[in-house]
Amino acid sequence: MAAAAAARLLRLAPRRLQVPKASPLAALSFPLPRAAPLAAASGRRQRFCTAAQASTPASTAAAETTGAAGEAVGEFRKRLRVSDVKGGEDEGVAWVGKELAVRGWVRTCRAQRTVTFVEVNDGSCLSNMQCVLTPETEGYEQIDSVTTGASVLVEGVVASSQGGKQKVELKVSKITVIGKSDPTSFPIQKKRASREFLRTVAHLRPRTNTFGAVARVRNALSYATHKFFQDNGFVWVSSPIITASDCEGAGEQFYVTTLLSNSVEGGSLVKDIPATKDGRVDWSQDFFCKPAFLTVSGQLNGETYASALSDIYTFGPTFRAENSNTSRHLAEFWMIEPELAFADLNDDMACATAYLQYVVKYILENCKEDMDFFNTWVEKGIIDRLNDVVQKNFVHLSYTDAVELLLGSKKKFEFPVKWGLDLQSEHERYITEVVFGGRPVIIRDYPKEIKAFYMRENDDGKTVAAMDLLVPRVGELIGGSQREERLDYLEARLDEQNLNKESYWWYLDLRRYGSVPHAGFGLGFERLVQFATGIDNIRDAIPFPRVPGSAEF
Prior knowledge:
Layout lengths: L1 H16 L20 H10 L9 H10 L15 H5 L12 E13 L4 E6 L7 E5 L17 E10 L7 E12 L15 H5 L9 H23 L3 E2 L5 E2 L49 E2 L4 H11 L1 E9 L12 E10 L3 H22 L1 H10 L4 H10 L3 E4 H10 L16 H11 L5 E7 L15 E9 L3 E8 L4 H10 L8 H8 L5 E7 H9 L20
Parallel strand pairs: 3-5, 6-9, 11-12
Antiparallel strand pairs: 1-2, 1-4, 2-3, 4-5, 7-8, 9-10, 10-15, 12-13, 13-14, 14-15
Helix pairs in contact: 6-8, 6-9, 6-15, 8-10
Keywords: Aminoacyl-tRNA synthetase, ATP-binding, Ligase, Nucleotide-binding, Protein biosynthesis
InterPro entries: Aa-tRNA-synt_II, aa-tRNA-synth_II, aa-tRNA-synth_II/BPL/LPL, Asn-tRNA-ligase, Asp/Asn-tRNA-synth_IIb, NA-bd_OB-fold, NA-bd_OB_tRNA
GO biological process, one term: asparaginyl-tRNA aminoacylation
């Protein structure tokens, strides 16, 4: 049976690897079914894709033992990108005279009498590689297919550019069109398109300057997030997406159910949904035998691991069924939620401050080209604003002091200011932008009636040890608290908010068995991306926004 299976694989393998001779990919060094020399295989990664390397003595011996014939997997190599060439301080001058192959998508093509300029972008950076072709260039007969949106492979020698927009360009010796693009229907042209329109073509908008830059900065913020917490001894924990509890107690959750069958044409009928005698949905017949939801937060689960591993963080998708169409809300978003054991609110504020300063500094140092783009085209002055976050000391004041400060300002706000009411974005921005001149501000010790059940009650019996970190232009960016570690206080808070204690039995157990003071905070990742890029609408800070009435792509 083993021999038959091996023979079957041999018959299938060539079919997976063969490329029709007529295909443009046939010229791009796809691996052949037979083994290739190691040097040639390594070079092919630099051309187009991974190739199989020659069989090693060990693999040959194994094949002889089993009677099977196979090929060793080729070595994976990091591919050279445009950013590697043009991303240095000399903007590519050191590469002059060297051979280079660029794979990417055509941004523009300008044909003149004796020369054609093609701008190719591979997504690694904002800059395009200007490629210079002549009628003598191999593959030039394909020039009519070199249109905006087409994918190409261009090979040639780096040369000093005669133009003023770039220091180097590629003198092309060979061009291969990999994928054509119909110029009459491709929705993204050289002229500027509105962001509202680009949301309707979210599958193509990463090819624009703005959304390519947003994606790279988002990636850098994600990397910096993991690096900050890992370097500080935190353990990353995967919190569940499906939950039976409501962390925020607001009831704005998406149900997860299998009671609605997809097997019936047109969907399930209401009459087919199991119900109890009093007409309610019979959740006992559902998949989890109880109501289940998409999570609004990984915090409660994170606390369980902080109660064993000391310092942890979660970083994953969360969901909220809030029917809001504002520029600040998404139905699906990512949250960063660290939890610190043996910590109080002061430790929590210190961690939040250090984290924000770290990630902002990281993108300023590692995403300079993209940040310059945002500073020029999206929000003038954003680099100065972010430098203020890195360089200035954060300050904190109590909620009570903040309310008195707002009342004393004599400024007319759209929303009322009164002790016991939550602060609105306009209040938060006034405090951080006007009162403290662009300095990040932390408001602490909020009235317990406007905060979640898990926040630790202060000695005054009226406030809880909660904090919100405010930044210019956004308002609240981070919200956190010291958690209630006292069992009797926590049970009382659940009763006050009419939450079922049985649903939180495991959360209460943490207070029964080795409870410790602990604290944590939550940061909406898309709001961080907004803050770091200057993008106005949060729907443009995530690749595929999910909002009321829209779940496209």
